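re: ur question from yesterday

yeah so i grabbed the chain u mentioned. its 424 aa long if i counted rite. heres the sequnce exactly as i have it in my notes:
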Amino acid sequence: MTVWSYLWRYRISISVGVVALLATNVLFLGVPYFMGRAVQALRDGQVDGVPMLALWMAVSAVATALTRIVSRVYIFNTARSAEYDLRSDLFRHLLTLDAGYFRKNSTGDVMSRLTNDVQTVRAMWGAGVLNVVNTAFAFATVLFMMMRIDPVLTLWSIAPYPLIYVVGQAFGKRIYKTSQGVQAELGVLSGKIQEDLGGIQLIKTYGIEDVRRQTFVASSLRLLDRNMALTRVRGQLVPVLAALSASGAVILLWIGGHAVLSGRIGLGQLIELGGYVARLVWPTLALGWMLSLLQRGRASWSRLASLFGTKPQIVDGTGEPLPASQEPMAVVIRDLTVAIDGRTLLKDVNLELPPGTITAVVGRTGAGKSTLVDALTRLIDVPAGAIWCDGRDFTTVPMASLRQQIGYAPQEAFLFSTLSLIHI
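ran it thru and got these structure tokens back, copy pasting raw so excuse formatting
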């Protein structure tokens, strides 16, 4: 799966948006074209045709606006639909992961990926794709019209643009690196906030508000430093690209002015060329923002891809499901040993739970009581042959079937936003 796989599902909508973008760029050419002809008509004293040329300019402008709206509606809505699919897939994947993943990764970091990273990827799909396609169409259509008038003057006018590409690539690498740092630090801060909110009673009970406040401030300052580093890179990029794009207009006025004075081109053609060069200013300025958006989107996707690449450590059973029954199960534990992250929590546990009996597991804090219950519900992985239910190896039973036979009340209460009957 790649970052563009989600957009491919909506290729028809994307195609409509791209066609509308092409129409936008073609129709825009009418504005400088008819403007140049109007100026030339005024210079030649042929004022009768100027009102009609002005009308065609207005028609071109209105048609450009309409097709631009259509392109944005289709492309941005497609990005929203792809975002919905991505968020749904991420949530479904999280449901397949075992408790071990959530022990190693804080809730704040997971939430940061599902919110900030997903939104950044959606921005890349929407505004990023739109500006990439629009920039390509703008340069292709404008250069065609400019070459039609004067190829030499066109080449002089676009001379700074290859340098713009080189500068953009250099800044893009820096933006990608700093964006990854911002997203990672944001996940850390989100995790600390979640921990403080979840344990606010303990914080107040032990009077450690100042300690937690200092930790929060330190993490916030680190995130601020990361964001300022990204802002500095982006702040340098836009003025550099603006200066390079403006230099093209200066070259056009200098060399084009001499061409008009020498009679090689007319004044109307110079005005028309100026309109075309002005058309390239925004796509060039947007290039810096677009590169930043694409690089930030890539950085966020790499975090989401690592989440997708995480596989559950507990392998679901492939045997037959347990038969539906109201009768209690017989559970036998034989030499059960559980180790997590290299630390042995249970060792050589042997126990029989006859059907219909009540068993109390008593021990000091940290003895492994909760770990034993988690093993019985397969919330943690257990070795094959260590737990048997009704004569069947625990690990061969599908987890959905197994958990339907178990009632489990965790130590930490959590209420979902639903009816009390469903909780019960």
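noticed a couple things. DSSP finds 14 helices and four strands in the chain. also The longest strand covers residues 343-353.
anyway ttyl
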